[in-house]
Structures are given as C-alpha cells and as structure tokens.
Specification:
Belongs to the mandelate racemase/muconate lactonizing enzyme family. GaD subfamily. By secondary structure, this protein is of the alpha/beta class. The protein has 13 helices and 12 strands. The protein folds into 2 domains: 111 residues, 2-Layer Sandwich (Enolase-like, domain 1), CATH 3.30.390.10; 244 residues, TIM Barrel (Alpha-Beta Barrel), CATH 3.20.20. Helix 9 links the parallel strand 8 and strand 9. Helix 5 packs parallel to helix 6. The structure holds D-gluconic acid and magnesium ion.
Length: 398
Amino acid sequence: MVTIKDVEVYPVSDLATAKASPWASVSIIVKVTTSDGQVGYGEAVPTLRVNQVIKAIEEVRRLVIGKDPFRVSYIFREWYKHDFYISRSFESATAYSSVDIALHDILGKYYGAPVYQLIGGLINDKVKVYANGWYSDCVTPEDFAKRAKEVVSMGFKAMKFDPFGPYFDSMDKAGLEEAVERVRAVREAVGKDVDILIEVHGRFNVNTAVQMVRAMEPFEPLFIEEPIHPDLNMEGLSKVKNATGVRIATGERIISIEEALQLIERGLVDVLQPDITNALGFTGMSRIRALTEAYGIELAPHNAFGPIQHAATLQFDASSFNILIQESFYEFWPQWKRDIIGDAFKLNEGYHTVPSKPGLGVTVNERLLDELRFTGMEPFHEEEPVWVIKGTWRRYGS
Ligand SMILES: O=C(O)[C@H](O)[C@@H](O)[C@H](O)[C@H](O)CO
Ligand SMILES: [Mg+2]
C-alpha cells in the first residue's frame, strides 16, 4: 500500500519585498511525499500566524504519516476526531487545509488528471479574476484613478480596493466623503463596463456600515465586502443587507461548512468568499459549494496569499458553475512568488486559464523553496494593521 511518508513545511519569503504586503509577506508552502516518491503541494495562511501555523501543521503531520493518501475524506474525519478544537481553531483549519490541497495534488498526479476532474469535472476552462494589491500608496482620488486606469490597461475587467483610509469602527462625515470621492474617481476612470468591488476588511460597526453601503450604492459596485466586524454578528449583517440593493460579500475567514451555513441560511450573504487555504482545502470547499448551490448564491473565492493557493483555487473554480469571479494578487506579487510555480499564469482579457496538467497543474521550483526559506517573525507595522494595502492607512493631506 502507498502511504504518506512525510509532510514538510517551507515558510518562504524575500526580506527585500516583505514589507509591501505584510498579510502575505511569507508564503507557507507544504510538501507531502508518499512512500513511492510522489509529491504534492499545499499552502497555508500566514497573516501574523506563520509560527503558530507551522506548529499546527506539525500536529497534522504526525496524524497523517503512514496513512493511505487516497483516503482524503477519511483522513479529514480522523483529524476532526483527534483535534478537539478544530471547529474553533483557525490554525488547525489552515494546517489541515494545506495538507488536503497537497493530497489532491498527489491524487491528480496518480490518475494523470487535473484536480478539477476529481471534484466534478470541467465547467470553466478560464476564470474571470479581479485585481487586488494594485493601489499601494494611493491616498487621493487622483492617485486611485491613475492607478485604476493602469490596471485596466493591463487587461483587468474588475478590481477591488479598500477606500476607507485609517477609519476603524466608525467613520465621521469627512471620512465617508473621502471614501466616496475615491470610489467615484475609480468609477469615472474605468467606465461602466469594468467591475469595481469595495473591500471593507471588516472595519465598521453596524451604524457606520449602513451609512456607508447607502453612500456607495450609486457607483454600482459588484459587491461590498465584509462591511461589519467579522464576528458572525447576524443581526448586524441583516441590517446592513437590508439597507441596500448591492450584493454583500463575506466569508474569507470561515473555517467550516457550519459557519458557511450560519451566513447563508438567513440570506445574509449574496456572494460567499471561502478560502481554500482555511476552509479545509478541496474537501471543505466542495462541501461549502454544495450549500451555495442549494441557496442560489454566488462564489468569489478569497485568494490573497501565494502561488499554490492561486493554482488550487483555479482548479476549484474550474469545476464550479456558480463562480462569480476570483480574486488575484498574482500580477502585483513580487517576482519570487510567481517564480515558485515557474510564473505559470498570464492574464488574458481579464481571465486566468485553468491548467489542465495533472494535480494542481503547476511545477514547483524546489530549489527556490530552499533558497527563500524564512525563519523568525513576519514584519509588523505599528501603525498599519497587517491587512492594509501599504501606504493607504492615511487621510488626505496626512
Ligand atoms: O479580500 C482580501 O483579499 C482580504 O481581505 C485580505 O486578505 C486582503 O487582501 C489583504 O489584507 C490586503 O488588503
Ligand atoms: Mg477581504
């Protein structure tokens, strides 16, 4: 019988570029090897958790070693049984997710099939992506407009941005006006045919969020994301949802189908954004997808970290019919992140093509994984929270 022989973790970074995107300054790449020498790759969430997540992967490692790599659902159930706190532990969920992704990569390689063949078969051979990470140091509406035009000229048909400067919890009148002017500038710069997506990063209390979504509605955003603090505050989300006709998106922090259900069953979310690196890999994402299908809502998978996540998310999207759009930081990454997978993706008229090669469909540069090995703690900014696009935690004139 083929068994899982090892699970290795490669935290990788390049200090020269680490401060530009602190939530993803390190990529946590996971390599699973089988007893007959097959190799698969996964990825886990960094975002000020690198060292905890590496430890959590070590726990998953000792459970899966010696087990049959083909029994992915069984292995998940075993971990669920052992880890008393998995339903509450982000670290455990992302650790497990990374191994699940790697096991699917391995399975695909054994069967000579891309992962999408294993989870339903091909529906989309290309996926519409929206740009994120494009607006570093943008503060004035003119800054945003200029950069947004560049994003369109790169070929994007959609882009997401957070226009809320340094506001958190609440926002005064001046703050709301500044945000509105930034959104207006982007809408005018890109025209009506390019989608704009408004990222709130879970900043606001309910009252502020209600006021904000109403002010943003005239600019016809494709969706407004995480308008309130992300604590599954159902009553609050319901107030925000009822205040506007704009699609409300959320879900990048959920770690289970049960959390997805809480959001979905009360009609509080129009677009769910599960992330394959924390929503329990292909196994968890497939279960969540079934729920979204049943409730007729759309998927826009969160994809903010690194190259294996990017490849895995595209495989998932390829077999989903209710994909609205997928996030992409790919074009704005430092080159080392792209080089890990031989710069496998090219933007083509706003879409990324899904690889049809076995497994995740990308070849990992192992030499680079060794060269870029990172130890220590991630960069930390006193002023800008880890999730902020660099240089945007500012008001005009400050
Ligand atoms: O939707 C997203 O992508 C997430 O909210 C984050 O992962 C951010 O991308 C990151 O904090 C930079 O803004
Ligand atoms: Mg987000």
